[in-house]
Amino acid sequence: MPLLAKQHITIPTKDLISWCYDGRAAFDQDKPIYIDAADPARTISATRAYKYIRQLVAGFRAAGLRKGDVVCVHSFNNLYYPVLVQGIVGAGGVFVGTNPSYTPYELGHALKTSQAKFVIAEPDILSAPKEAALKLGIPKERILLLAKPDDCKGHGHASWRTLLEHGAQEWERFDDEATAKNTPAFLMFSSGTTGLPKAAIQSHYNLIAQHTLVHENPRNPEPYHMRRVVCLPMFHTAIGPYTHVSTLRSGRESYIMKRFALREFLEHTKRFQMTSMIIVPPMVVAIVNAASSSPAQEKWVRACLSSVANVVAGAAPLDQEMQAKLQALLPATSVFTQLWAMTETTCVASYFYHPKADTTGSVGRFIPNLDVKLVDPDSGTHDHEVGPYDTRGELCIRGPTVISGYLNNPEANARDWDGDGFFHTGDIVYCDSKTKLWYVVDRKKELIKVRGFQVAPNEIEGVLLAHPDIKDAAVIGIVQGEAGELPRAYVVVEEGREVTEVEVRRWVGERLARYKQVEGGVRFVEGIPKT
């Protein structure tokens, strides 16, 4: 039978921006909350953020944005990325972020799936989104650049700052549960349990619930002021809700890096005295390897981490040995634990509230308001429950952070949600009957985890099968070092044709992002077994 939540916290039903605004009494609204880590003189305060939001609301409306329209942001991390997101949502729009490494092929899928009406992109990576947007009929004037006006010259598109030239208007407001639950705020791409990336609909209610249950639990107040270097990509659920929502709501400083680079990350952590880190397994490996390279390096890494009170890792499993090695580099009072999260749960679902510690590789306990159950992954049905303790099963979850479904994808929605409202995650877990701690032990879903990113094998297979000389193909993940898993392709060539591994790699490389490349190799076979 399901394990029902033992603690319940009331979730506010306001629109996202009004709810963030309600938190303004808790901190100095004029202090910087968004800081450019590379140039800390560049900052945005909450006061300034709300000014930008109101200007962007007026600007987007003047540009023709209607309620429910989707705006795609195609960019690396940027100081202005969060306020753009907040302005989109405030105008009644829906934010979708895309990976800067996406090719025109991938962006075409993302823009079509999300039904984007506007695109805002960095000038240096404009070509792919521009090509995809124009093919889909998005007007040129609705393609804007995330850059200063002077840096837009020669690109043929206006700066996003032109949206600030239309005065200011109040954001879309509401305060009722049905509207909060049914109004999308973000679309976050996820492969779910299988298949091509799907647009997960994160509502105003989902995002408010995520912050409330993780960061404002009255039984577990956070005993330190949270300051983080934000180096994970802002288009991703791993950091998007925290950066775009929690920072504005709570006043926690976010020092923004364009992307992760080990030395700079550690230097910023030391310089700005970071107290909290959210990281993925490849970052853990990089930090541990840097420290182990020499006694001097270990001393330097320890010094960089000396202010850190709490570290959490997610996105992919981390073995206990590596967890222990990073824990040993942290101050004696610091805690390093793992969590479990999904795009479909609007980020964190299972967690250790600080200062609880763990050395067993657990992902903690589920946050309040979430009901869970386990089903037999081999039963082929939604209703063959097992457990709940000391028994492995597919994790199914229900609660206010769980999305209502994928945009315009009834097949996936019918497959992944059951009649009782539980989302079937595809992760195989068990709960220890003595400690009540949860462990992720396997996965049912057909996904490959590459450096923390989800890769759907059939997305790569689809690209391979589009090659005129390839008759059949299959892709699997192989475990390989620090990357975790890498995609390997098994290819059947059409009779009488010749295809080389170099050609296969080039074909995939021209169509898919770097982390989806067949770095695990290409194997030519006579046939693909079918079941």
Explain what this protein looks like in three dimensions.
This protein is of the alpha/beta class and 531 residues long. The protein has 15 helices and 26 strands. It has a 6-stranded mixed sheet with strand order 6-5-3-4-7-8, sandwiched between helices. Strand 3, helix 3 and strand 4 (94-98) form a beta-alpha-beta unit. The radius of gyration is 23 Å and the shape is globular. The chain starts with 15 loop residues before the first helix and ends in a 7-residue tail after the last strand.
Q: What's the total count of β strands?
A: 26
Coarse morphology: globular
Question: Quick check: average pLDDT?
Answer: 92
The helicity comes to 25-40%
Tell me the span between the first and last alpha carbons.
32 Å
From the alpha carbons, calculate the radius of gyration and give it in angstroms. 23 Å
Strand content: 15-25%
Could you list the spans in which at least 5 consecutive residues all have pLDDT below 50? Answer: none
Biggest beta-sheet profile: 6 strands, mixed
Q: Which structural category fits the helices and strands? A: alpha/beta
- Strand arrangement, major sheet: 6-5-3-4-7-8
| Helical segment count | 15
Give short descriptive properties of this protein.
531 residues; five-stranded antiparallel β-sheet; 24% strand; 15 helices
Task: Indicate the topology.
Blueprint: H1 16-22, E1 32-36, E2 43-45, H2 46-62, E3 70-74, H3 81-90, E4 94-98, H4 104-114, E5 116-121, H5 127-135, E6 143-145, H6 177-182, E7 184-190, E8 198-203, H7 204-215, E9 227-230, H8 240-250, E10 253-256, H9 262-271, E11 276-279, H10 281-292, H11 295-304, E12 310-313, H12 320-329, E13 335-338, E14 340-342, E15 347-351, E16 365-366, E17 371-375, E18 385-386, E19 393-398, H13 410-416, E20 423-431, E21 438-443, E22 448-450, E23 453-455, H14 457-465, E24 470-479, E25 485-493, H15 501-509, E26 522-524
Parallel strand pairs: 1-10, 3-4, 3-5, 4-7, 5-6, 9-10, 11-12, 12-13, 25-26
Antiparallel strand pairs: 1-2, 7-8, 14-15, 15-16, 17-18, 17-19, 19-20, 20-21, 22-23, 24-25
Helix pairs in contact: 1-8, 2-3, 4-5, 7-8, 10-11, 10-12
